[in-house]
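Trying the structure run again after the queue cleared.
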Amino acid sequence: MSVSARLDAELTDGRSVVLLDDRGWSGSLNRTSEAIPDVWSGTSVEEIEREARFVVGPDEPFEGHSQEDMEAGHWDFLSDKLRRQGVVADPDELRRLPHDVVLSERLRARVA
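Done. Tokens:
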């Protein structure tokens, strides 16, 4: 399985601004059980939504950085991307906005 993820900001005027389009993940099935014929049949929409939120969210901390540092940097980065496209957005306000996951019809069909 290979899934691409993109993070868009939906603006109040109805426009959509791409913030991240270089994220995604891959997975495979440990074939220890014949009860699950393929990776897709063992994957739920909820699992994909959870993973999508994870891959477009703040990165994991690395040497010398806390989770708080990573989160602040993430929201600052997204705020700056919006600012460069003419949209003023406070990083703390961005953090509090709803974070909906929209799956493509093709992906929904695969999981179903």
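The chain has one domain: 2-111. Worth checking whether this holds up in the mutant runs.
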